[in-house]
Amino acid sequence: MKRTTIKDLAKMLQVSTSTVSRALSNHPDISDSVKVRVREVAELLNYHPSDFAINFRRNSTKVIGLIVPKISMFFIPAILDGISTKLKKEGYNFFILSSEESVAIEGENILTCSNSRVDGILISLCAETENLDHFKIAQDLEVPIVVFDKSIDQNDYDEVVFNNEESAEKCALRLIDMDCKNILAVFGSANLSITEKRKAGFMKIMTENKSTNCHSIFADSSDQARELVENLLKTEKYDAIFAMSDEVLAGIHIALMNSKSDLNLIKVVAISEGILPKYLNSNYEFEKNDGLKMGLKAAEILVQKIQNKEKATDSNRYFI
User: Out of the domains of life, which is the source (predicted)?
Assistant: First the structure.
């Protein structure tokens, strides 16, 4: 069924669209009798005002663009729950775009958000992103942007991230406390600051502890982590493996299963949301990252920037 518009109401009532619009908004210049007639016809034709049109006239769409590197079980669902909860509470809708781990698509997504006149953008960067030059279109339009979870070293945009160094340090200390001597540390995409920070924190503890030997590798996906670890296990013996994320952990777990490793002899510690390790193996230990808090905080910061009309390039870093 065709949606009834203000033009349809105006045509039936034989008045101008502006008269209908003002009558529906209870404008004092419109007589009570006209208001009653307009509302009766609106009800008869099942007319509902367009939120987009109303917000457009107010120079606001009440829509947020949410850009993620890819949509998968490893992109912390709790983060999305936090974002959705906060935005809904504040009266915002949002749509999700996936960059498919491609910086070119990430740029297209920024353009799509800008052309859609979103009030703001929440973005977690893809593995290929090395700079934020493709943010310029949104910056020029003064669209507020908040980066969350996966970022790079930058000082131009607000970002909400986990305390990655501290989490990795705690994992390293756990392994040392368990008297592990030969450790394999598996990190994610090498160019992301989340990887850099977690490696720095983990290796700091490893370097300080002279009695341990630590070998580190990088994997861009769970499949690559599985392949690299499987190959290493053919020739090397480790008494512990560190996984910097749930995605990396999934690949490590399959590699351990395929190599028929004795999990009683290999300690596994990960930085995790806390759900995946329990399903894989109850012996896996983890340092929990609270995705719900991150999502709530990222959405809160963006809403504040929108409401306070802050410039797109005001920059602060918030740790969860």
Answer: Bacteria
User: Per-residue confidence at 71, pLDDT binned at 50, 70, 90?
Assistant: confident
**DSSP 3-state assignment of 67?**
strand
pLDDT higher at 309 or 222: 222
- Helical segments of 6-159, H only: 6-13, 17-24, 32-44, 51-57, 77-89, 103-115, 136-140
Supply the pTM of this predicted model: 0.78
Single out the residue of 197, 209, 167, 203 nearest to residue 185, CA to CA. Answer: 203
Task: Give the count of alpha carbons within 13 A of 15, CB side only.
Answer: 16
Transcribe 23-46 into DSSP letters. Answer: HHTT-TTS-HHHHHHHHHHHHHTT
CATH code reported for the domain at 61-162+293-319: 3.40.50.2300
CATH architecture of 164-288: 3-Layer(aba) Sandwich (3.40)
Q: Are strands 63-68 and 93-98 parallel, antiparallel or unpaired?
A: parallel
Contact of 34 with 23, CB cutoff 8 Å? yes
Residues 70, 100: contact at Cβ < 8 Å?
yes
